[in-house]
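Run F-box domain-containing protein through structure prediction, thanks.
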Amino acid sequence: MDLPTELHLHIASFLPYPDALAMKHTCRHFYGLVYTGVHLKVDWFVARFERKLECPMEKCSFRTDEAFCNKRIRDIMERRRRHLECSQSSGGCLVIEGSTCQKDHVPIWLKKRGRLEKLRSFGYEVFIYGLIFLVVNVLWKVVAR
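Sure, done. The structure for F-box domain-containing protein is below.
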């Protein structure tokens, strides 16, 4: 927030629609500053169409972000966020343009919808109990020898 508003505006002008929407919802300062209007939404659709990615062909409302982000748009943004549309080739990342996608750092079984949230919902207790069980099991094997 130490940067001048003009610099924030300039940086935000380079963002595609999903990133601009995410930036817009980070704080009140950016909510009133970041543009996510019709032109940005149409540019995002055109870029997706040129890359032969899924584009919803049903009627979309471009009036507000809330009306625009129907279930299909939210699903597309979620797949984009999880790098599921990226190719493994050099420069194939669609989220960070120009870089090679590192999506294989997160196991595919964890990327499927809801699994990461389900794992987080258990909390850290399961992780801690698992570590305790592992340590006790290793100590038991060492002592039993």
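DSSP finds nine helices and no strands in the chain.
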